[in-house]
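Hi support team,

I submitted a single chain yesterday and got back a structure, but I'm not sure I'm reading the token output correctly. Could someone confirm the output below corresponds to the sequence I sent? I've pasted both exactly as they appear in my results page.

Thanks,
R.
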Amino acid sequence: MAFVEELKDSARDRLVSVPEDAPLVEAARRLHAGTDIVVVCAPSGTLAGILTKTDLVGFFVAATRLDEPVREALVARSQVVTCRLDDELHAVWRLMQSRDLKNIPIVDQADRPIGILNARDALNALLLDTEIEERLLRDYVMGLGYR
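Hi R., thanks for writing in. Yes, this is the structure output for that exact sequence:
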């Protein structure tokens, strides 16, 4: 059984965050190739919401001022799907599939963002886990290593 914790290093590298009072332009600057999501943090460091490239483009199209604070455009906290390091990866993967999500924030027990789980990374880990289980089962059936 695989857990989100197995992907914590790559998830930590993928984390891009801004304070909720940062200008939207700052959040846009942090979205670069390979980054699809910016985590928005409250002054306490807890997750306040997220911004995706799609969110930012939509807000910029409708905005009259580009110096608006990030909190004006962020996805409300109640709508953000998160996971924790001790969550079972297969369950998180099913949740991501059901909501058509490419990325979700990983938060600690205090609800502070510590990484971004990417669907591709989760799927690769699950496939590797399945391959290992398959090999172990084959070896068991063939009696390899059991003498």
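A quick pointer for reading it: Helices lie at 8-14, 24-30, 53-62, 89-99, 119-142. Let us know if anything else looks off.

Best,
Support desk
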